[in-house]
Design a protein that fits this description.
The chain is of the alpha/beta class. The protein has twelve helices and eleven strands. The protein folds into two domains: about 180 residues, Rossmann fold (3-Layer(aba) Sandwich); about 120 residues, Rossmann fold, CATH 3.40.50. The radius of gyration is 22 Å and the shape is elongated. The mean pLDDT is about 95. Bound molecules: 6-O-phosphono-beta-D-fructofuranose.
Length: about 325
């Protein structure tokens, strides 16, 4: 093999740059040329590729985001878009691609692989909802950002005896909400995986005050049926009966923009290096992820066919710890 490409796709995640750097430098170490695709699958379809040297990826390991740029690309979901992507790879003499991203990106990686292109996926999404990796690039840093916000909100909540609703990211998965709720000492956690009645949230907050707490913190996942907007509207509508003054903070993309911490830099570096190692061994059509503490491959066919379950025992633990 002489030339490979690397791309980042979907929502950016802190640590993506560390993964790019690792792919480039370990690829160069194999004696290959490494090209970067700009703006994910959109750039691939447009043929927006640039050669990367070791110096081009210098000074990026500590940066959030992705120096290659990323995109959500509906065109890549079409046969025509994928055919165009393959044509661009052939035109640039690219023999294999490393695709850094989450569920949508790995579905694209699987499709490319089915069309005969050697592909290795690298598990990266702050949502931590990707099968094939117990923890994905960006989760740890995103959690730290959420926790910093929760800790600060708890301080002002305690000063005023107020209740706060904090919405974290997670379109279909409550991992960030549940873990930041547990680590931040929330009184209630609302996630998409568990149908939650707003009356139960109100009862939990009331009970917390009755037990002598000075604050009420509810962490909500954006994808929950009652997300921050829904819960706030419900509490407002029933304000007199519930008797709560509820403030809302939506963290949103703040969680994605942080500089990667040590865990994410190391995970991303190990995954990026594993991706080129597998390619060098002629192995592709796989995702590299962290399983039982080790970097392991999982066939992309398995990754796209399975959903990663959330450990619902932790939901119960969050309730107990809120005592
Ligand atoms: O998949 C990562 C994620 O941050 C989700 O938590 C969130 O729902 C989504 O991306 C937001 O996507 P976008 O940045 O395209 O608005």
């Amino acid at each position: 093999m002489e030339r490979i490409a690397v791309l980042t796709s979907g929502g950016d995640a802190p640590g993506m740059n560390a993964a790019i750097r690792a792919v480039v430098r370990t690829g160069l170490d194999q004696g290959w040329e490494v090209w970067g695709v700009r703006h994910g699958y959109t750039g691939l379809i447009a043929g927006d590729l640039i050669p990367l040297g070791a110096r081009d990826v210098g000074g990026i390991i500590q940066q959030g985001g992705t120096v290659l740029g990323s995109a959500r690309c509906p065109e890549f979901e079409t046969e025509a878009g994928r055919m165009m992507a393959l044509r661009m790879l052939a035109e640039h003499d690219i023999e294999a691609v490393v695709i850094i991203g989450g569920n949508g990106s790995q579905a694209g990686a699987h499709a490319l692989s089915q069309m005969g292109c050697p592909v290795v996926g690298v598990a990266s999404t702050i949502d931590n909802d990707l099968y094939g990796s117990e923890i994905t690039i960006g989760v740890d840093t995103a959690l730290d950002i959420a926790l910093e916000a929760i800790d600060r909100l708890k301080v002002t909540a305690s000063s005023h005896h107020r209740a706060f609703l904090i919405e974290v990211m997670g379109r279909e998965c409550g991992y960030l909400a549940l873990m930041s709720g547990i680590a931040g000492g929330a009184e209630a956690v609302v996630i998409p995986e568990v149908e939650t009645d707003p009356e139960v949230v109100a009862a939990d907050l009331r009970a917390a005050y009755e037990r002598g707490k000075a604050h009420g913190i509810v962490v909500v996942a954006e994808g929950a049926r009652y997300n921050a907007e829904g819960l706030a509207a419900y509490f407002q509508e029933h304000h007199e009966r519930l008797g709560f003054d509820l403030r809302v903070t939506t963290l949103g993309h703040v969680q994605r923009g942080g500089a990667p911490g040590a865990f994410d830099r190391l995970l991303a570096t190990r995954l990026g290096a594993a991706a080129t190692r597998h390619l060098a061994q002629g192995e592709h059509g796989i995702l590299v992820g962290l399983l039982k503490g080790e970097i392991k491959p999982t066939p992309l066919s398995e990754v796209v066919a399975n959903k990663k379950p959330l450990d619902l025992e932790l939901v119960q633990l969050a309730r107990v710890l809120a005592e």
